[in-house]
Amino acid sequence: MKHFGDGRDWFFENRYGMFIHWGIYSINGWHEQVQWRRRIPKAEYVKRVAQFNPVKYDPDSWMRLTKESGMDYVIFTTKHHDGFCMWDTKETDYNVTSTPYRRDILAMLTKSCRKYGIKLCLYYSCPDWHHPNSINQGGDHELPKQNPGDEPDIGKYIAYVKRQASELCSNYGRIYGFFWDIPPRVKDPSINKMLRKLQPGIMINDRGYDKGDYDTPERKVPAGGEFKRPTEACQSVGEQSWGYRKDEDYFSSSFLMQGIAKIMAMGGNYVLNVGPKPDGMIPSEGIRILKEIGKWYVRVKPGITAEPATRYLDHENFMLTRDGNTIYVICHKELPSSGITLPPITIMPERAVLLNNGKKLPVKLEVTPRYYRSVPFVHIQGIPLELSASEPLVIRLDFKKLSEKILDEMPARAKSMDY
Ligand code: JFZ
Fold first, then answer.
1. Over the stretch 365-380, which tens digit does the pLDDT of each residue have?
2. Could you give the residue range(s) of every CATH 3.20.20.80 domain in the chain?
3. Residue 141 beta carbon below 6 angstroms from any ligand 1 atom
4. Does the beta carbon of 242 sit less than 6 angstroms from any atom of ligand 1?
5. Contact 106, 112 (CB under 8 A)
6. I need a surface site. Which of 29, 121, 124, 141 has the fewest CB within 10 A?
7. What does CATH list as the number for 307-415?
8. How far is the CA of 182 from the centre of ligand 1 (A)?
């Protein structure tokens, strides 16, 4: 992946983040879009402002969990589609200082991020179901019709967005990333230009007022071996919702790990979301999943975050990454057997080590019955299948010497050698 050669390159060194969806929608415990999806009238929905009082909010504990999970950064929802602002904005009273809690949630989070060395990125929704000038006429993630008393005016609304984005990028220290959500009806490159002026080195996604710096596949694992543009995949610990949901259908850690392994082996970043409860606590199921994945991630991280190299492999069941004279075999899917043959790799490694448990694995250069018409390929055996059933495996192959030239010539060598 080509780097920018400027402050944005933090993105390539910090590959795993926590997404946090939190707002007054958490009071329902149904979904972050409850106002729209359950057709709650604006006059009824705003009553949640007087109910929001997260007395157990402790951003230091959130950051300790982020670090324990092996994560490097967070993306925090400053304003979701409901238009409610989780910071002390001067642009509207529809913000967290109008609640019984009164305090600036974002300012508290910023302090904890700095204390624990976690990079802070901000989420901001282009659609807004509260602001009177915002367009709500059935467009993408808009309400089906304007609220009573609205005065839809896209120019005035974008001016509001610019002023809020300026607040967010001026008053909370270094902001590493800006996650716009739901591409707006109009493009306006001046907005991201303003963000870059306020925050040199900010990474901006593809869902805002221009195409930004990086792509954002959501809740999916793209096919292929390598991303062509900087990419950050996003997923939540639960299948139904990004915001807090009382009876969420949580994913298995194994399912989420498979996506992380594939996305990172393709050169992408990955952010995994939790939705804190109205009291400010992260649900225990979410904590369990993050910690389980974190134990695996810290062991296999050198392999899944190395340079994408799957292009050298004739196999759709594994991914390859490379770091100098080392190749990593990323078994992102459950293995069918305890052995793997790796055409067209025809050079013998010095050793094979399973990063998941640190144990060496038997490795040979041989002709196997399945590849009897070929030259000898690398053949790794003794892989613990029961482990493969619970987490993606990563095997490190150390070679005496490995170069781009050797790797590029392997396929031809494999075909030309008469066997
Ligand atoms: C959006 C939000 O609507 C959702 O509530 C959450 O915040 C998520 C992270 O982002 O969801 C999307 C965004 C884009 C697509 C689908 C859902 N899309 O491009 O298909």
1. 999 999 888 899 999 9
2. 10-304
3. yes
4. yes
5. no
6. 141
7. 2.60.40.1180
8. 7
